[in-house]
What does this fold into?
Amino acid sequence: MVSFLLAAAIFILAMVALGLFRVFCGPTDVDRMMAVQLLGTGGSAVLLLLAVAVEIPAIVDVALMLALLAAFAAVTFVTSASGSPAAAEDATDSR
It folds into this structure.
């Protein structure tokens, strides 16, 4: 079972590594952001598989933090890219 989990983790890690190409060479910012979301999701999956395979429960905490940071990155991107008047007003008020 451990070898299957490690093989699945390596496969997911390889697919995430292919997503790095899109981060560096993406034609638009949206493509890059979606690739970063893939990195967060795939990285969490790899960490969770490794946590079960090597029986270290602390890795689950790291995976959850990575997923949380990826979600915050997406929200920040959408807020900054939307250009909504509310976001512009908040930026002016903070000065």
